[in-house]
Amino acid sequence: MSTSGRDAIENLSREDRVFPPSAAFAAAAAAGPGIYAEAEKDWVGFWAKQARERVTWFTPPTVALDDSKAPFFTWFADGELNVSYNCLDRHLENGGGGKVAYHWEGEPGDMRTITYADLHAEVCKFANALSDLGVRKGDRVALYMGMIPELPVAMLACARIGAVHTVVFGGFSADALADRIQDSSVKVIVTQDGSWRRGNVVPQKASADAAAGKCPTIEHIVVVRRCANEVAMEPGRDHWYHDLMTGASPVREPARMNAEDPLYILYTSGTTAKPKGIVHTQGGYLTQVATSHALVFDIKPTDVYWCAADIGWVTGHSYIVYGPLANHTTGIIYEGAPDMPDKDRLWSIIERYKATIFYTAPTAIRAFMKWGDEFPAKHDLSSLRLLGTVGEPINPEAWMWYHRNIGHERCPIVDTWWQTETGSIMITPLPGAVTTKPGSATFPFPGIGADVFDEEGKSVPFGGGGYLVLTRPWPAMLRTIYGDPDRYVSTYWKRYPGVYFAGDGCKRDDEGYFWLLGRVDDVMNVSGHRLSTTEIESALVAHPAVAEAAVVGRSDELTGEAIAAFVTLRAGIKGDADLIKELRNFVSEKISPIARPKSIVFTDDLPKTRSGKIMRRLLRDISEQRQLGDVTTLANSDVVHAIADMASAAKQD
Ligand code: WTA
Question: I want to staple 50 with a disulfide (CB 3.0 to 4.6 A). Which of 291, 433, 506, 608 is the partner?
């Protein structure tokens, strides 16, 4: 119970399994338990120390945090640096040019090995090519590309000359690209002729052309040849990447950037509203992503680290490109789908490169569960020593599946909570220092302040649920929403004055572990109980027949809202009326009778965003038999119609 008498969100479930790090892992870990107290003594000083030790500055900063214009905070504001210098040149100067930066694998099976020296030369050349096209410090460049090596090259080339990149996920439509270009007045697009997706060529350049047609600010389009499909090239405007690179010099001085100059804009779609251009800057961002990458992933010089996210999302920005390269890490990039040519592709990649660290999303793990244990079992995964997850709450049973089938009960799992807006991992275990519990992101990273508030802004005591807030500024925080500072203030800093409102539900258990409960927009109100989706979904996933579940509230005369569940079964299991009954009782017994779903619909798939998050908003529309809302960010549009048909066929009490 909270101090105000009732919880803003109820705490339904309990998890008693605990997983301490092995003595051997803890002894060799980059961070031990003492780091929390050290950071707590002087959290601003902690970040200032990381900035000194992990970043090479042209002009070291004399100030760390400036909160005089809060919530427009700055960090290290009088420092000067270059992010591409930090990711590349300084490693070459230390004799590290021969180390592999990326093992890259294309979907069709082609491979490239790119050393730090290779990447440096390519980045300098492309920086020169962009300059020759008229790109200057502060100009915006849209990178509309898939997972090819030229994407990190283009990001670092922008960083080298002080241009601001905005990566637009390669799977987005021409309209989505055009909206983003218009919002930030982009001058140049870098794209590719086509991209591979499940053996097909997606005509990327054609979409870029369609977008450019609506965007008068576009002066040039640079095209990487990837699929050798036919493309139209407009003379004067369009250029082949390889032509520009042939003549370009591999020497380019890195620009001296101010720590608070923008590094990139990344759009988050939110659910319905206009996308928000999240602005990240240089010095604080690099400091925190380098620190978190090193400590959360316990990075050693010999690691082969694989973050399997898309570079089009913030996870790829921070943990495929900037953090790992700043730390001189060897990474893996895979271009295509996880089931091409078969459902063991990712495990074959881990085996081939002897990956030591693997970081992916719960949605992917649930797909692996659904496909079956035999696919990872075919491969030697013994090189792995650490696993991670990001993007959604992970159901405890999915965590256990990952632990057993991928980690072979040997690898710690770091469940990392953060957002595009936070830039960096914020709530997470440190793998050698924290005992984990399946489904909990555990504790705030050293130096980070987080709390759980009730409706009135009071801290909810341990054992209760409410709204996650961040109580201190942090170096990698967003600085504003591009072109809309008022929206920045109203979205994040209005609900509770002086603290950052994350928009996620959260509870803490009796030991203070944080358990994320999903977006607050999805909270249901059943007979006056405020229920999060996460715990009910996790109860369903705990049943051996279930791979994935989503629940939503639909209006109900008796209870205000009633719980409607959508369930995907594991391979080979058929859903029938008996199973529906069994699952409803299972949830009731496992967590609470108030959480018992009123209806259950079986479905082969759930509507997801392109980054894999379940879109409960559309399931609510289906449950209420409403016209479907905005589906532009939906990855799999057929599925909602299929579910709608099944839902109307399956009326249950
Ligand atoms: C959710 C992704 C629970 C959360 C880096 C957050 C999580 C949103 C976790 C941000 C996690 C991310 N546990 N929920 N470990 N990680 N989320 O901007 O709702 O794509 O607010 O950034 O994802 O998504 P975004």
Answer: 291
